[in-house]
Structure formats: structure tokens, C-alpha cells
Design goal:
heterodimer; A: Butyryl-CoA Dehydrogenase, subunit A, domain 2; Butyryl-CoA Dehydrogenase, subunit A, domain 3; 4-stranded antiparallel β-sheet; 47% helix; 14% strand; B: 370 residues; alpha+beta; 3-stranded antiparallel β-sheet
């Protein structure tokens, strides 16, 4: 069959169904930030609502609460989700990173134990990989998990763990062979964040909220049944997870198309018109958001036809993270002096301030995009070495 | 919804690539570019011309009812990419993708155009002279030329009856002729909405296929630069181990990979020959303009980066890279150029107010009442 860029009748029907459900269920007022206790609880509640409509894990198998949608249908879901300005996914790392990893590497018992609770929002998951001395060079990690009988005894220090302040579970990467070096001797182990010997300390971010945390392990005892895959297989499992993260699902194109749309309508406001350089940037941003969407449709079609995604996932990560930054910077420039205003002022200006604050928060968060999920410098190395075939340094 | 090429499309592209790998090498291009005269040039290209004509692609876009292969633009866009990758000197893509289908459409409504079309189906001897281009490509192999201004009037002329002057392009392999009509050169005038529609469709196809060639050129320049970065040693190691070199080439690859789907989607948007309503035309023009801009940006960065990675060699005539860079520079200025295409998009977004948003990947309607 040749290229066909028209939705099928069933795809259109799915879109209508999603749109109608979201119209009814999306909270009318934006939820507070999920990096606060109150906001985290509200977002967990939203995960439950999504689950009740079977919309929390649309690509997952039906047995785990999903709908077994294919990737094109997932794109349609995401488009409607962002069109509706639905809340951010507090369990994103569980949905897109840990869930798929467990489906690939977990035992049937582990899948039955973790996936339904993940899907329903009962358990919110955090990634626990980085260490103070192991960021881009993740294989330098030193936190040990030493087997003693039916437990691993864990000691060390993890950091930059997103959502960990309020989350329930962590999926971590530990050195189970203390004599090993680099990517050998690592294992992928999950644990409850309130385990004795585990101390979680929030780290305030650029925006003042504690969106990430550092985690201290002091003789924490994790049962061996929490090992995912085999001992020593941690690195390859983690790289598979990183592939999901940089690949298709971490940042769907709809997110950036929604921002591009908001930016365009901001730039078209009569009182902000007239700066040709910013307006050209706005047009370029729409083009890039559109290019990312088309690229994802092409990748999704290829994967549905049996293809796979490899190092080219790094192209996506660089592209969307830099686009997001460019869009928010353009908005800040358009807003001029108003862009420094923050907060929940009430009165006539309230809705405008809310809009300004949204751009400002988005701008600060967009600065993290080129850093998290593998810094863009590392992504460019991957593109050069594994896509273009250039030599390792 | 299926955004992948099928086996037949990929096979057709592969067979053109194989042919050009054999008959359109850097050495072949150099022999043609450095030919002392027209005879030597024709000799340098004759085998390739012969092989290309044996492929039988010339009538690809002409409908089966008119004796062609009845293929679509999405069948052709990968061929354009291959022609670009090889910096093919012959205007194969411009003829099969633009000039011959345009003449076929004119032939449907005009008897004299029909006779010209019948002749051109045999020897591919028709060209288009755009009002904003510098000349006719490869005019000595052509007999007919279509002129138009995007107005409701197209003219079909006999090239030999007009006045021809050879002119030089920055690309030594784009053989341009400045051409003026004369009293005796006019064969037919085709008027009306159909002429305008045919002209706009031809322009859209020309932009998509130029974009496809630019994509192929960008890919070739990138692979030349990567090969050089592996081969060239300084400070005792290949220069390609340096991140300063790697990251530049990674940036080029990003531009290429995010131009590619835009170009392929534009081919799909521009392949309909049906009478389009305003919404469909807007959709086509937006997609096509986007494709051209994205292709220009990718090939421009590829050329600039490939030259830089080659160091002083990159600035030398000796290097074959020049043929690909110069083709990219020449193509990027056609059909309104990057700036003309960007303006189309900019006006659609900032003034005309087409609807955008997450659910509008494949559909950007005009707001009601616009």
C-alpha cells in the first residue's frame, strides 16, 4: 500500500470518543503543580479518573487496564489530550518508562504485582539512576546492592530523581557486583520509597518547587524478588528504558503543537504585533512542531509495519527539547515587562497573570529539556557515532 | 493512515540509485564539468543518458489514459532524492515530474498542444520557463517550452524558433539558456481557470521535487563529510573523534531527518490532480512551502558544514563536494526561493489565520468566513 495520509473511519471515531470523554472529565480549572503535596494528590486523583475511563495506558494490553491501541491511535489520543489542556501526567515515568520495561523484562508475577497498581495511579513511580558522580557518565554509578540471603543490602546516594518527593516506588540501577566496573555488574531493582534505610530529600528547582529529589540509602534491605531481569543485566535494561524515554513516547508531538498554537495566538494579539524577528521565529516554531509531528507519524507507521527505533531516537530528543526552549523564549520576549510577573494575583488581571505565569513556568522548565533524559551533548555524540558512524572519542 | 513507502516505491528508488552509483560518480560529474566543448560534454554524459532513457521513467506522471505510467508524486519524490544525491546533470526530474505532466494537461484542452505532447512523450523534449527563473535547463535537448506567469494564460512555444543565449550557472552542471520568444515561436495559448490550475499544480510539483533533490544533496554532502572526518588525521587521530566536528554533523543530520517527513507529506498533498477547493489549495500550498523551506535549510547547513569539515580542501576546486554544494545553492533559489516559500507560510499563519493545533497535523482549514 502506498502512502495514505487520511485517517480511517475507526480512527476518526476514536478521536470523537476521546474528545467527548475529555470534554466531560478534564478539570475546568488547572490543577496545582504536581511538585506540591496538594497538587500531587490532585494529579494522582486525575490518574484514577483516567483509569476509570480506561484512558490511563492506552497502548498497554487490555489485561493491565489498557486498550492495546497502536501508535497512530496513541498519537490521536495525545492530540486530543493536549487539545483539551488536560493535566500533566504525574505518573509519566511509570507509564512510559517502567511499565514498558517490566512488560519486556519482568516475570509474570512482577507484571501482575506492579502493572495494575501503576495503571490505576495507586503507585506513582520515580526513576532512580543518577548519582552525584554519575550523570551523563551513568556507568560511573557506585551505589551498591549486595546480596545477603533473600535481600539486597543497599548503600549509597542517588540524585535528580524526578517526582521522588511524593512518589511511592522507585526503579533504580545499582551495582550488585561491588568489584565490577562501568556497565558490568549493574542490576535493575525496584523498591518502595518509604523503605527503612531510604531517605528522600527534595531539591528545590529553578522554579522553587521540589520536583526532584536526592535519595540516601543506608543498609536498606530490598527483597530479591524486586530484581527485574537477571543480576548484571541492569545496564542493557536501563538502556532499553532510555530508548523508550528518548524515543517516541516521552514527549508526544501534540505537546509542542499545543505550545506552538498558544504562541501563535499570543503573537497575533493586536498589542503584541509588529516585531518581524519574533514573528518569523513564531512561524518557524509552528513549522518545527509540525515537522516533529510528521516525523512521529512516519516513525509510528514504520514501527507498526515491524520496524524498530534505535539511536535515531536521539534526533527526536534534541529536536523537541530545543524547539520547546525556542517557543518559550519567544513568548517571554513577546510579553516584555509582563514576563517577570509571577503569582496568583486576584482581580481584573488574574487571568492574564495566569497566562504569563504559565509561559514563565514553561520557560524555566524548557531549560531542563536539553538536560534531562540524557543531555543533548550526549545525544549529539550518539547521533554522530551510531547514526553517522563516526569514531568514539 | 500509513506514512511509509511501499516496496515498489523503494525498489524504484533503489534501481535509480544503483544506476547513478555506476554512471553519475564524482569523476563522471568532473568530466562533464571540465569538458572543453559541447561535444566533449555530450560524450561524457551519453552512456548515462542512454541508461536513464532505458529506465523508461519519463512518462511516469502522465496518466495511463494519455499513454503514461500513471504514477503519483509520492512515487516520484524518492527518485528526486536519488537524483539529488547524485547531483544528476540531466533534468530528468524536472521533465518527468513537472514539464511533461504540465504539457499533458494542456494537451487535454488544446489540439496543437496535443501534437507537441505526442512528440515530447517520445523524446522528453519539453521544458518549463518560470517567470522567476534565470533560464531553460538543457535547452539543446528540447523542442518545446511552456511559459506562464501564474496568470490565467499559458503559452506553448517552439524553442528553436525563439532566441537562445547560453548563460552560466554557479553550478557548472546546470546548463542554462536564456530564451526569448519570437513572432514565429508561439504554438498555442491556453487560457482560463484550467490553465491557471495546471500552472499552480506544476509549481507545487516543482517545489516538492526541488525539495526532494535538496534532501538527497544534503545526505550526500553529509556522507562525504563523515567519510573525510574518518579518513583525515590530525594530532595523530581522525578529526572525527572531536566533538566539535561530531556535533556539527549531528546538527546537519537533525535538519535532514526533520525535513524528510515534511517533504514526503508535501508530495502527498500535491499529488491530487482533481479540482481543489480553497481549503485543499491552502493545505497543499502550506505543506509545499514548508517542504521547500525545510529542504533549503537542511541542504544549506549540510553544504556549509561539509565544506568546513573538509578544511582547506573544502575550498578547493579539486574536491567533488563542490558539485553537490553548488547544485544545492542553485536549487534553493528557484520557485520563489526559501524567502518566498517562508512568506507563504508566514502569511497563512499570521494573517490568513489558518487553524493550527495538535489535532491539525494533516488539516489546516481556514477559519469560517475567511
Amino acid at each position: 500500500m502506498p502512502i495514505d495520509l487520511n485517517y480511517s473511519e475507526s480512527q476518526r471515531a476514536l478521536r470523537r470518543e476521546i474528545r467527548e470523554w475529555l470534554q466531560v472529565h478534564v478539570p475546568k480549572k488547572p490543577l496545582p503543580s504536581y511538585d506540591t503535596a496538594e497538587g500531587f494528590a490532585a494529579h494522582r486523583e486525575w490518574e484514577r479518573t483516567l483509569y476509570s475511563g480506561r484512558w490511563s495506558m492506552v497502548t498497554w494490553p487490555v489485561e493491565y487496564g489498557g486498550r492495546a491501541l497502536d501508535l497512530i491511535e496513541w498519537l490521536i489520543f495525545e492530540e486530543e489530550y493536549y487539545r483539551a489542556d488536560a493535566p500533566g501526567r504525574v505518573n509519566q515515568n511509570g507509564v512510559f518508562l517502567f511499565g514498558p520495561t517490566l512488560m519486556e523484562y519482568g516475570t509474570p508475577e512482577q507484571r501482575a504485582r506492579f502493572l495494575p497498581r501503576l495503571a490505576s495511579g495507586e503507585d506513582i513511580w520515580a526513576q532512580v539512576w543518577s548519582e552525584p558522580q554519575a550523570g551523563s557518565d551513568l556507568a560511573a554509578l557506585r551505589t551498591t546492592a549486595v546480596r545477603g540471603g533473600d535481600h539486597y543490602v543497599v548503600n549509597g546516594h542517588k540524585i535528580w530523581s524526578t517526582r521522588a518527593v511524593f512518589a511511592d516506588w522507585g526503579f533504580g540501577l545499582f551495582r550488585t557486583d561491588p568489584t565490577s566496573e562501568r556497565h558490568r555488574g549493574l542490576s535493575y531493582i525496584v523498591f518502595p520509597l518509604d523503605l527503612p534505610g531510604v531517605q528522600v530529600r527534595g531539591i528545590p528547582q529553578l522554579d522553587g518547587e521540589s520536583g526532584f529529589a536526592e535519595i540516601f540509602f543506608e543498609n536498606a534491605r530490598i527483597p530479591v524478588e524486586n530484581l527485574v531481569g537477571a543480576e548484571g543485566q541492569g545496564w542493557s535494561i536501563a538502556m532499553a528504558t532510555a530508548g523508550f524515554e528518548r524515543g517516541l513516547m516521552l514527549r508526544s508531538p501534540a505537546r509542542f503543537q499545543r505550545t506552538a498554537q498558544r504562541l501563535l495566538s499570543l503573537a497575533c494579539r493586536a498589542e503584541l504585533r509588529g516585531d518581524p524577528s519574533i514573528e518569523a521565529t513564531v512561524t518557524q516554531c509552528w513549522m518545527d512542531a509540525q515537522a516533529y509531528a510528521l516525523s512521529t507519524y512516519m516513525t509510528a507507521s514504520r514501527l507498526i509495519a515491524g520496524g524498530s527505533i534505535g539511536a535515531e531516537a536521539s534526533l527526536n530528543k534534541v529536536f523537541w527539547s530545543e524547539l520547546d526552549l525556542t517557543m518559550h523564549r519567544a513568548a517571554i520576549q513577546l510579553l516584555t515587562a509582563r514576563a517577570e510577573l509571577r503569582g496568583s494575583v486576584t482581580g481584573d488581571d488574574a487571568s492574564e497573570l495566569e497566562e504569563v505565569t504559565r509561559w514563565l513556568d514553561g520557560f524555566m522548565f524548557s531549560l531542563a529539556g536539553p538536560i534531562y533524559a540524557g543531555a543533548n551533548e550526549i545525544q549529539r555524540n550518539i547521533i554522530a557515532e551510531r547514526v553517522l558512524g563516526m569514531p568514539k572519542g | 493512515m500509513r506514512f511509509t513507502f511501499d516496496e515498489d516505491q523503494l525498489l524504484a528508488a533503489q534501481s535509480l540509485r544503483d544506476l547513478l552509483d555506476d554512471h553519475c560518480t564524482g569523476a563522471d560529474l568532473r568530466r562533464a564539468a571540465e569538458a572543453a566543448d559541447g561535444d566533449e560534454y555530450r560524450l561524457a554524459c551519453s552512456t548515462r543518458r542512454q541508461r536513464l532513457s532505458e529506465l523508461g521513467l519519463a512518462t511516469a506522471l502522465v496518466s495511463e489514459a494519455q499513454g503514461g505510467l500513471g504514477l503519483k508524486l509520492t512515487d516520484i519524490v524518492l527518485l528526486a532524492e536519488e537524483a539529488g544525491r547524485a547531483a544528476l546533470p540531466e533534468p530528468l526530474i524536472e521533465t518527468l515530474g513537472v514539464a511533461l505532466p504540465l504539457l499533458a494537461e494542456l494537451a487535454a484542452s488544446d489540439e496543437r498542444a496535443r501534437a507537441a505532447f505526442a512528440a515530447a512523450m517520445v523524446d522528453e523534449s519539453v521544458r518549463v520557463l518560470w517567470s522567476d527563473s534565470s533560464g531553460i535547463l538543457d535547452a539543446d535537448h528540447a523542442r518545446f517550452v511552456v511559459l506562464g506567469e501564474g496568470t490565467q494564460s499559458l503559452e506553448l512555444h517552439d524553442i528553436h524558433a525563439g532566441e537562445s543565449t547560453a548563460i552560466k550557472s554557479v553550478d557548472p552542471l546546470r546548463r542554462l539558456t536564456r530564451w526569448q520568444s519570437s513572432n514565429g515561436s508561439l504554438i498555442a495559448v491556453i487560457n482560463g481557470a484550467e490553465a491557471e490550475r495546471a500552472w499552480q499544480l506544476a509549481r507545487a510539483r516543482a517545489r516538492v521535487l526541488a525539495a526532494g533533490q535538496l534532501l538527497g544533496l544534503a545526505e550526500r554532502m553529509t556522507s562525504l563529510a563523515v567519510a573525510y572526518a574518518l579518513d583525515r588525521k590530525q594530532f595523530g587521530k581522525a578529526i572525527g573523534v572531536n566533538q566539535a566536528v561530531k556535533h556539527q554533523l549531528a546538527n546537519v543530520q537533525i535538519k535532514i531527518e526533520f525535513a524528510r517527513p515534511v517533504i514526503y507529506a508535501a508530495a502527498a498533498a500535491a499529488e491530487s490532480t482533481l479540482v481543489m477547493d480553497k481549503a485543499m489549495r491552502v493545505q497543499r500550498d502550506v505543506r509545499v512551502a514548508h517542504a521547500f523551506v525545510a529542504a533549503c535549510d537542511a541542504s544549506d547547513l549540510a553544504a556549509r558544514t561539509a565544506i568546513q569539515v573538509h578544511g582547506a580542501m573544502g575550498y578547493s576546486w579539486e574536491l567533488d563536494l563542490q558539485f553537490y554544494a553548488k547544485r544545492a545553492w542553485a536549487l534553493a533559489g528557484l520557485h520563489g526561493g526559501r524567502s518566498g516559500c517562508f512568506r507563504v507560510l508566514h502569511e497563512m499563519l499570521m494573517t490568513a489565520g489558518i487553524e493550527v493545533g495538535p489535532d491539525r497535523v494533516f488539516d489546516n482549514p481556514m477559519p469560517e468566513g475567511a
